[in-house]
Structures are given as C-alpha cells and as structure tokens.
UniProtKB/TrEMBL annotation:
It comes from the Bacteria. Signal peptide: none annotated. This is Transporter associated domain-containing protein. InterPro entries: FAD-bd_PCMH-like_sf (IPR036318), FAD-bd_PCMH_sub2 (IPR016169), Transptr-assoc_dom (IPR005170). Keywords: Membrane, Transmembrane, Transmembrane helix. The chain crosses the membrane at residues 12-32, 105-123.
Length: 206
C-alpha cells in the first residue's frame, strides 16, 4: 500500500520523537550515579550549611531526572494528562529549589491548584462522554478499562487505540471508521477517526 506524503511525514516525526526519547533516557540513566554522589556529600559533611547545599543540589538533580522521565512519557503517550503532570513536576521543582520568597510560593501553589482542577475536569469530561454515546476514547489505558469498567483485556499495548491499531495491522488493514475487530471476547468498533487517527471506539462483549 502506497503511503501519502502526510503519512510519510507522520512516520518520520514519530521516528524523531522516539529518537529524542532514547537520547533523554540515556541522559537520565547517565545522571543516576550523581544522586549517590550528592547523598555521600550530604552524609560526610556534618556542617548544616554544607549539608543544606548538598541536599539542595540533590533535590535539583533528582527532580530534573523526574522531569526527564515525565517528558519521555508525555512524548510517547500524547495525552493531555501527561502534559499537565510534566508541568506539575516543573512547578514543584521551581517551588522546592528556586523559590526566593512568599510570592514565588503563592504563585506556585496557585498554579498547582489550577493544574489539579484541570486534571479533574478532563477526567470528568471523559467519563461523561463515555456515558453519552457508549464509546471510549482511543487514548484510554487498558488498565483503566479493567479497573473502572471491569473489562479485563490482556495486551502488550498500553492504550485502547494502540490495541485496535495493532489488530488492524495484523489483519492487513488500515483503520477506518466502521471497522470491527474481535479480541478476547470483545468486539472493537471504530466509531470516529480524526486526521487518520483512531479517536472513539465502541466495545461490545460477545
């Protein structure tokens, strides 16, 4: 099957994204030994000033590694929740390490509260859409289907859309609206696609 220029461009961008993720992961792994160096410096210097500086450096480094991990997760998953989680860690790092006064702390706290409210809004909105039309977002995690909807779907894929895309590939098809694929006692019907990407899926138990 011949790929269109847009599809070729999307594949190239995905390859670049994964390449960037690999580079970030290597940097994170390379930075892990420094955490133990900070701990050792903190332990061997009983002076409160030196110890505080060592602990501050440790927090800076540890939180930066966490930000790197969350950045990888955000790039791979392409989900709003992960973007907000990344921003949350960045703000937390700013507050814990670089806050210079009460104004910084207040602004950071307000920002964190707004992020939590936004996350709550996204979860509620997603839940209501499911109830209205009976479909699920392709980005929903399979573990959430199991925990919240009693659908035990065992797959190496993380998301519902990833599973359906894999089933379509195994069938030699390009996903299209109206396609139905069966897996582990369930029928997965693609109800909506956006720019060639699976968006909404109806799950029916056989």
């Amino acid at each position: 099957m011949k790929c269109t220029p847009n599809e070729i461009m999307k594949k190239m961008l995905h390859v670049l994204e994964y390449a960037i993720c690999v580079i970030i992961l290597i940097a994170v792994i390379a930075g892990l030994p420094d955490l133990f160096r900070y701990i050792w410096e903190f332990a061997k210097n009983p002076s409160s000033i030196i110890s505080y500086k060592a602990f501050s450096d440790f927090l800076k480094h540890a939180l930066m590694l966490v930000v790197g991990i969350e950045l990888i997760y955000m790039i791979i998953s392409h989900q709003n929740e992960n973007i907000l989680t990344l921003v949350l860690f960045v703000i937390a790092r700013k507050m814990l390490v670089f806050a210079d006064g009460m104004v910084d702390i207040v602004l950071g706290t307000v920002s964190i509260v707004l992020i939590f409210i936004t996350l709550k809004f996204i979860v509620i909105r997603e839940y209501n859409i499911k109830k209205l039309d009976g479909t699920f977002s392709a980005s929903i995690f399979l573990k959430d289907l199991k925990n919240n909807h009693n659908m035990n779907i065992d797959s190496s894929e993380n998301t519902l859309g990833g599973l359906v895309a894999r089933l379509a590939g195994e069938a030699g098809n390009k996903p299209n609206e109206g396609d139905v694929y069966s897996y582990e006692g369930y029928d997965f019907s693609i109800k909506k696609m956006t720019d060639g990407v699976i968006d909404r899926i109806l799950i029916t138990k056989k």
